[in-house]
Design a protein that fits this description.
- The protein is of the alpha/beta class.
- The chain contains six helices and twelve strands.
Length: about 220
């Protein structure tokens, strides 16, 4: 008796379905891999323009969102001296939100001809900031930067010049020339009073004078 070899029937319909599913899966991943960024929103930037930040982020041509992950974008932007920190988030994959913490310029230091930033780094770029006209001793320099960094932008913009002005009683005294014509004395421990400068002025005579914030709130009219 002869053994009959049973031929297995090839199910072409199943093969076609499998190939179609494979093509769909491949197309799906290919679509998402090449999905482009459509919108970029930049928050809390004043020093750098939106366009500059987009250029530093390497997003000018709105590239693939999956080839530009959030941490990669952050690392690119952090390379700029005016960025202290940055947080990048995405919504719906294609919308990028860039939240900047700026490394703001605090003062121009005449001693070394540099602009000093809030993290103590220096740049030769010029900005509309107060000018420190003389040398500040090393023992107070870092603390001075810390105190300057606490000033509101509205107050910082009112200061024209700063002179390190110690005397026999106070070795960390500063004399500030204000853009409104007043002079202000402060020291390291009273620097924070400057944020109340506008409020203090409201209770003083309308004439220009010298405000002693190093000890008390005394005001002397300039003759």
């Amino acid at each position: 008796m002869k053994n009959k070899t049973k031929k297995r029937k090839i199910r072409y319909d199943r093969i076609i379905i499998f190939l179609i599913i494979l093509i769909i899966i491949f197309s799906f991943f290919s679509y998402f891999f090449n999905l482009k960024i459509t919108n970029i929103y930049i928050l809390n930037n004043n020093i750098l323009s939106d366009q500059k930040i987009i250029e530093f982020a390497e997003l000018s041509d709105y590239p693939s969102t999956f080839q530009n992950l959030s941490f990669q974008i952050e690392n690119r932007i952090k390379n700029n001296i005016y960025v202290k920190d940055v947080n990048v988030t995405k919504k719906w994959f294609t919308q990028v939100y860039i939240d900047i913490t700026e490394n703001r310029p605090l003062f121009y230091y005449e001693y070394n001809k540099k602009t000093i930033l809030s993290d103590k780094r220096e740049t030769t770029d010029l900005h509309a900031v107060p000018t420190v006209i003389n040398y500040i001793t090393d023992s107070y320099y870092d603390k001075f930067i810390e105190e300057m960094n606490k000033l509101d932008e509205s107050i910082l913009s009112r200061i024209s010049e700063i002179k390190f002005y110690p005397n026999e009683v106070d070795d960390n005294r500063f004399l500030l020339t204000m853009s409104d014509g007043n002079y202000v004395y402060v020291n390291i421990s009273t620097f924070n009073k400057l944020n109340k400068y506008i409020t203090i002025l409201e209770s003083l005579p309308k004439e220009n004078g010298i405000l002693y914030l190093d000890y008390g709130n005394n005001f002397e009219i300039i003759d």
